Amino acid sequence: MNSDSYVTDGKGNYLVQVEDDTQFGFSLLSDDQSWPGGFGSGWTTWQCVTKTAVPRRIRKQLDWLFEE
Fold first, then answer.
1. What are the backbone dihedrals phi and psi of residue 51, each rounded to the nearest 5 degrees, phi first?
2. The overall pTM is greater than 0.70
3. Angle at 25 between CA 48 and CA 35, to 5 degrees
4. pLDDT tens digits, residue range 2-38?
5. Contact between 42 and 49 (Cβ < 8 Å)
6. What would you report as the CA-atom Rg of the chain, rounded to the nearest whole angstrom?
7. Cα angle vertex 31, ends 13, 57, to 5°?
8. Do 9 and 43 form a contact (C-beta atoms < 8 A)?
9. Is there a contact between 26 and 18 (Cβ–Cβ < 8 Å)?
10. Which sign does the torsion angle of CA 45, 31, 61, 50 carry?
11. Residue 43 has pLDDT above 60, yes or no
């Protein structure tokens, strides 16, 4: 199962969700930070979205994180 996707707070902010070997099974990543299994960014609500729902400028900024 591949759960790599984007997440959004619905306010125009996006992070990348990637599977990993942490106790949570995933981490959320920005271009300069990571949060294993959750948020240290102050987001209180979020939802997963497909790449096609993410603005192109955000994909250009963050798609490289899926290759890590």
1. -55, -35
2. yes
3. 70
4. 567 999 988 889 999 988 888 888 888 999 988 887 7
5. no
6. 11
7. 55
8. yes
9. yes
10. negative
11. yes
